[in-house]
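Figure 6 in text form: structure in, sequence out.
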């Protein structure tokens, strides 16, 4: 699996090197990595679990941008 990354933003996944280059990015091999997807929805409190102490945005009152 690979992710096409341009300026720190994922602009494609599983695309060829030429397609990724056309999008202004480079393919990064992610075959040995784990990915964690998180959806931040205002008004929905994330319940405590094993990951909560390690991520400030999952606290009851997240930091102010």
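Output sequence:
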């Amino acid at each position: 699996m690979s992710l096409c990354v341009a300026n720190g933003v994922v602009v494609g996944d599983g695309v060829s090197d030429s397609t990724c280059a056309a999008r202004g990015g480079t393919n990064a091999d992610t075959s040995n990595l784990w990915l964690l997807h998180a959806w931040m929805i205002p008004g929905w409190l994330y319940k405590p679990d094993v990951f909560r102490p390690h991520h400030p945005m999952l606290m009851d009152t997240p930091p102010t941008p």
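Caption detail: Residues 5 and 42 are 27 Å apart (CA to CA).
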